[in-house]
Specification:
50% of the residues lie in helices and 6% in strands. It is mainly alpha-helical. It has three domains: 136 residues; 77 residues; 236 residues, no CATH class. This is TfuA-like core domain-containing protein.
Length: 482
């Protein structure tokens, strides 16, 4: 069992507290972090703090995907308490008072737990105060007779109307003075805030740390939730997030697998053949599983047979030309007139293939490529392209790959593929690239490297490839101006 903890300003000394424990301490969680973590069944992930303004917040379905695979996810104090209250019924484990207050409706606003803070290098030095902590401190003031309930409620209401970054104890004291509270009580309030302010977020964070340290104790006490009884729909977004989180180790560090795939799709001469075999194999395996056929050979005939089972295509022997008119959308006029009908239908299956609506076969392709030598070569080229782009930006500070001409990119790719005029998008579908916009976005990072080092980019899926030059050698081939 591996244990992870995402934490920041709620418990800045967490790494020191857990130095003797076998727990991986990580910065506040953000979108994509849980998928990159890739925990296994039986692991435990604790979420205390999370980013939400300067980057996207951790998504609910990222957490659900972990829970569905058998990972225990705990939440407390801040972002963790919010997500636990929202996903309690799906099996996320909430810890502490803040979680319970959100769950039971005593707290409703997300910004109750928000605060402005410094970077990790400064141990997340707080620059404001969370309203949930100020509420708890004012409750203590009521208990000790410093303030009455209406006055405390007024102070909270005023702070709640202000942006979270402007909430602090000095601001609270100033509000108390403006509310014409007797000077003696204002001074008592100031002294309490300076010496005994309640840090509810820290208290709850420590509770989660204890749970993380003692997962077996929690099971013995019967405090864990039952196994999840839901199935998360494989949406297009989850599919993209999961693929985007995949990476592999290379000589130059971690490289995104989707970048390697794009390199192969764009520049491997035989990628259409590889992709065609991949699609046919998937369809034949699906047919064997769902239609109970005994065929396992990934042939065109077997793929067409499954397509007929699913009523995707008509019988190729049909004389009704109207039934075949849909092919005009998926093939060029020359392909329609020169190819046998069976091949046309096979091309349609390849170009229209999706795992689910909107979800391309990128994951299948990555799994199939992983075992092939081209992966290491493509990864080196990805990093070489990154070096070329960085060199271009150093040479001309205004350079940005996102300002490269889409028309120039498409012209270069069209010439490289030998695509017929006006048929580039269909050729992209032969490589699993779903649209013109996706093609442009995929090619942008590699345009300079490919334009000025064309021989370097001549890849083959099923042949050994010459290793690319070093980044320094590659950079020298790029022009000084863009």
């Amino acid at each position: 069992m591996t244990r992870y903890l995402f934490v920041g300003p709620s418990l800045p000394e967490a790494a020191d507290l857990l130095a003797a424990d076998d727990i991986t301490v990580l910065p506040p969680v953000a979108a994509g972090d849980l998928l990159k973590l890739a925990p296994q069944q039986g692991d435990v992930v604790g979420i205390i703090d999370g980013y939400f303004r300067q980057t996207r917040a951790v998504r609910h379905k990222e957490i659900l995907s972990l829970i569905q695979t058998g990972v225990t996810v705990l939440g407390a104090a801040s972002m963790g308490a919010l997500r636990a209250a929202e996903l309690d019924t799906f099996g996320m484990h909430g810890v502490g008072r803040i979680y319970r207050d959100y769950l039971e409706g005593r707290l409703t606003a997300d910004d109750e737990v928000a605060l402005l803070h410094g970077p990790a290098e400064e141990r997340y030095r707080p620059l404001s105060e969370a309203l949930v902590n100020i509420r708890a401190t004012l409750s203590l003031c009521i208990q000790e007779g410093i303030l009455d309930e209406p006055t405390a409620a007024h102070l909270v209401a005023v702070l709640a109307r202000r942006p979270y970054r402007l909430r602090s104890y000095p601001e609270l004291i100033q509000l108390a003075r403006e509310a014409v509270i007797p000077a003696a009580k204002v001074e008592a309030l100031r002294l309490l805030c300076a010496t005994r302010a309640v840090n509810l977020k820290r208290d709850d964070a420590l509770q989660l740390v204890h749970r993380l340290r003692m997962p077996h104790e929690s099971r013995a006490n019967g405090t864990t939730h039952p196994s999840p009884n839901f199935t998360m729909a494989p949406t297009v977004y989850v599919h993209r997030w999961q693929l985007g989180a995949r990476s592999l180790d290379t000589e130059d560090g971690r490289t995104a697998e989707m970048s390697v795939l794009r390199m192969c799709q764009l520049f491997a001469r035989d990628y259409p053949d590889f992709y065609r075999d991949l699609v046919f194999n998937h369809l034949v395996q699906e047919c064997a599983s769902n239609c109970r056929t005994q065929h396992t050979e990934a042939t065109l005939d077997r793929a067409l047979e499954h397509a007929r089972h699913r009523n995707v295509i008509p019988d190729p022997r049909s004389d009704n030309l109207e039934e075949l008119s849909f092919l005009d959308l998926w093939l060029t006029p020359s392909e329609r007139t020169s190819r046998p009908l069976k091949d046309q239908l096979g091309t349609f299956l390849v170009r229209s293939f999706q795992l689910t609506p909107g979800a391309p076969a990128d994951g299948l392709a990555l799994d199939a490529l992983r075992r092939r030598p081209i992966v290491s070569t493509a990864a080196k080229l990805v990093n070489a392209a990154k070096s070329v782009n960085e060199h271009a930006q150093q040479t001309q500070s205004i350079f940005d790959i996102h300002t490269l001409s889409a028309d120039r990119i498409l012209t270069h790719i069209s010439e490289r593929w030998g695509a017929e005029p006006g048929a580039l998008e269909l050729h992209a579908l032969d490589r699993g690239i779903g649209s013109r916009d996706v093609l442009v976005a995929a090619a942008r990072p590699y345009y300079l490297l490919a334009r000025y080092n064309p021989d370097l980019m001549d890849l083959r899926i099923d042949h050994s490839n010459v290793s690319p030059s070093s980044p320094a050698e590659t950079q020298s081939s790029a022009p000084g101006k863009m």
